[in-house]
């Protein structure tokens, strides 16, 4: 019989796991969202920050714990209780979203918007983006093709440098504040519902989806430290995650406050990339902007290499008809093409997909975390997921740009969706999901009693 005892980990080992979690969820590309959230929320930044930290910090940690508790090998296994077809479709949607559709192109557009665009005249911006993204994804392809560790090693040096530069900006921003974050003007949506809107803005980080896709690397590292039982692994992830995610939460919180303060000098920006550029240029001048351009480009390139390689590896595993290199070529070309639509368009079209995927991911994460209480019974999963999918599709259609949401079909869906509780908040799936949970647990309990009765009769 295998030895399932779990040795006590040292502080150094906990720190290693915390570093892995921090590296998984901290990305330069995500910094634009809390900064822009601060501008949107203005004096209502406290409530907005609370909501943002739930979906941007707590949920990603729970996604890794879900991997640990269910002993999953990736996002496919998280959806497995609902059948192979659902698991495969869910995996494809997750990887496509954090990969070539939105996540990977965003690494290039954020780098360009923050690091390059300020130095390029307005009339040459589109051409410059084309050239920049071609070079960016050409390098990503080259490093991923040979699975070279050079860029990863460079990233280990430059990521801390980027953090130092970021905290220097925080220090200067608080020593020379542009405004009082408690008195700046908030947009109408945040005056009415800062917590919920902050919660929805947290979807943009895509970290909960990334946790499902890549969390197995952290879980595997914990198991290699001698933690065999699922409960022991999840405890290590929780303890280490508290330290790691506290760091991520602190960075997000400071960015939200700086964003709110920036309204004292700047108008509400089109996106967080523009806001970040304005702040760095104001506090650091051209030199600070140039240093930031190099650091953010390399850190985002490191992320892009990981994303295209992971996409190619996972798709080759499940669809072996195409080689790793063929999948790598496809995802890199798709990312390059979509990146040239620009950061604002990518955010505008990714929001509807996230309004659909995040509710699904949330219920699957929570079901996985609490699955030991109902023996991971597929019937519970089925009731909850079915009751979540339909309203989430409605939220997705309503969130599309006006070309879809203002069409006859979009208006019809909006009329139906408005009948559901919390629809005005973008959370029309919550009540149906809870109803599905009650029904699923009820059927599960009935089946357990039936099985027990049959055993007694036998």
Automatic annotation (TrEMBL):
Membrane topology type: Multi-pass membrane protein
Its localization reads: Cell membrane
Looking at the keywords, is tRNA-binding present?
A: no
InterPro entries listed in its UniProt record? Brnchd-chn_aa_trnsp_Livcs
Q: Which keywords describe this protein according to UniProt?
A: Amino-acid transport, Cell membrane, Membrane, Transmembrane, Transmembrane helix, Transport
Q: Which GO terms describe its biological process?
A: isoleucine transport; L-leucine transport
Q: Name one GO molecular function term.
A: L-valine transmembrane transporter activity
Q: Name one GO cellular component term.
A: plasma membrane
Q: Which residues cross the membrane?
A: 14-33, 45-70, 82-103, 123-145, 157-175, 203-222, 242-266, 286-312, 324-343, 355-374, 381-404, 424-446
Please report which protein family the annotation says this sequence is part of: Belongs to the branched chain amino acid transporter family.
PANTHER family given in the database record: BRANCHED-CHAIN AMINO ACID PERMEASE BRNQ, BRANCHED-CHAIN AMINO ACID TRANSPORT SYSTEM 2 CARRIER PROTEIN
Its biological purpose is as follows: Component of the transport system for branched-chain amino acids.
User: What is the recorded name of this protein?
Assistant: Branched-chain amino acid transport system carrier protein
């Amino acid at each position: 019989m295998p030895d399932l005892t779990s040795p006590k980990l040292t502080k150094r080992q906990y720190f290693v796991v915390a570093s892995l979690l921090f590296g998984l969820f901290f990305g330069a590309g995500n910094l634009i969202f809390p900064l822009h959230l601060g501008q949107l929320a203005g004096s209502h930044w406290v409530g907005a920050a609370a909501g943002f930290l739930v979906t941007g910090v707590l949920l990603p940690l729970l996604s890794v714990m879900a991997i640990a508790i269910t002993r999953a090998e990736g996002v496919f296994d998280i959806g497995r209780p609902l059948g192979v077809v659902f698991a495969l479709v869910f995996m494809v949607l997750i990887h496509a979203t954090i990969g070539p559709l939105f996540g990977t192109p965003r690494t290039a557009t954020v780098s360009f918007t923050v690091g390059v665009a300020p130095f390029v005249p307005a009339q040459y911006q589109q051409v410059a983006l084309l050239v920049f993204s071609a070079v960016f994804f050409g390098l990503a392809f080259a490093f991923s093709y040979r699975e070279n560790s050079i860029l990863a090693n460079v990233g280990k040096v430059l990521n801390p440098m980027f953090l130092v530069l970021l905290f220097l900006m925080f220090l200067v921003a608080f020593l020379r504040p542009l405004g009082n974050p408690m008195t700046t003007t908030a947009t109408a949506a945040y005056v009415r519902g800062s917590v919920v809107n902050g919660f929805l803005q947290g979807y943009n980080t895509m970290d909960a989806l990334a946790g499902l896709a890549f969390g197995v690397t952290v879980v595997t590292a914990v198991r290699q430290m001698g933690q065999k039982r699922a409960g022991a692994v999840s405890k290590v992830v929780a303890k280490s995650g508290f330290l790691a995610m506290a760091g991520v939460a602190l960075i997000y919180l400071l960015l939200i406050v700086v964003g709110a303060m920036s309204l004292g000098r700047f108008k509400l920006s089109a996106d967080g990339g523009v806001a970040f550029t304005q702040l760095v240029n104001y506090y650091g001048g051209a030199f600070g902007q140039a240093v930031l351009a190099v650091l953010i480009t390399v850190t985002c390139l490191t992320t892009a290499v990981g994303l295209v390689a992971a996409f190619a590896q996972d798709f080759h595993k499940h669809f072996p008809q195409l080689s790793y290199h063929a999948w790598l070529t496809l995802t890199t070309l798709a990312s390059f093409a979509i990146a040239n639509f620009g950061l604002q368009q990518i955010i505008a079209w990714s929001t509807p997909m996230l309004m659909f995927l995040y509710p699904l991911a949330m219920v699957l994460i929570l079901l996985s975390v609490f699955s030991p209480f109902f023996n991971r019974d597929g019937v519970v999963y089925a009731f909850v997921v079915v009751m979540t999918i339909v309203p989430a599709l409605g939220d997705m259609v309503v969130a599309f740009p006006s070309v879809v949401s203002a069409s006859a079909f979009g208006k019809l869906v909006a009329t139906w969706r408005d009948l559901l509780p919390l629809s005005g908040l973008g959370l029309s799936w919550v009540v149906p999901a809870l109803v599905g949970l009650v029904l699923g647990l009820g059927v599960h309990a009935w089946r357990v009693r039936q099985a027990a009765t049959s055993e007694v009769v036998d």
